[in-house]
Amino acid sequence: MPTRKKISELKPLITNLAQTSHYQVIFGGLNSDLSTYLDERGVDTRFITNSAGLLCSSASIPGSSLATADINGNFMGVQEKMAHTRIFTQMQLEFYVDSDYRMIKFLEHWMEFIASGSESSLSPDSNAYYYRMQYPSAYKSNSTKIIKFDRDYKRELEYNFIGLFPINMSSVPISYDASDILKVSVAFNYERYIPGKITSKSKSGGTSNNMGSTPTPNTQGRIVNRGGTKIPEGNFKANQ
Fold first, then answer.
1. Between the N and C ends of the chain, which has fewer C-beta atoms within 10 Å?
2. What is the pTM of this model?
């Protein structure tokens, strides 16, 4: 049976909803050969770790699904489903392009490096040039993360990506129409993600993988008396 609630009981929840516009993308964990390859083309490590993520104009919190198999015969007349594989969906990121075009160069040459395993003596404009893929350990990132937070900076949701690399960079339209900010959209593939912090400090402190994130009353909330029980009215925050 549904229970009747007062507006004052719902207000602490519905006025404390997360916003979409507070997040940060941080690239990291690139192989030294890849970093050198990018640096030689004007994309230094400082830009990759400090600036590239700030240019991300649109991102998404990753999702996943479970592949299942149909099981028959355990119970008469009953068909069961059992999970056998976790599937991680591709991630689409959109970036503003800086006036030095380093954002495009970063993504373009990252993909170029992946397919640059051919003989170094061959020039790319040679008719005999061919593509051969690098070993996965040479081009995958294991330290890229997306951090979703709110404007009070007290609560956050972190996703760490393992084995991330770009697989599709969309064409960038340009025209003589009214000028607009140039953007580039890229699809990234990854092997898996880990929700929550994975630093050594969080592991030793017992807060990795979102452990210890129990809601606690905000000290700014007002204490009200309901049915003889004192209940904090107001916002709640998670311990990090």
1. N
2. 0.78
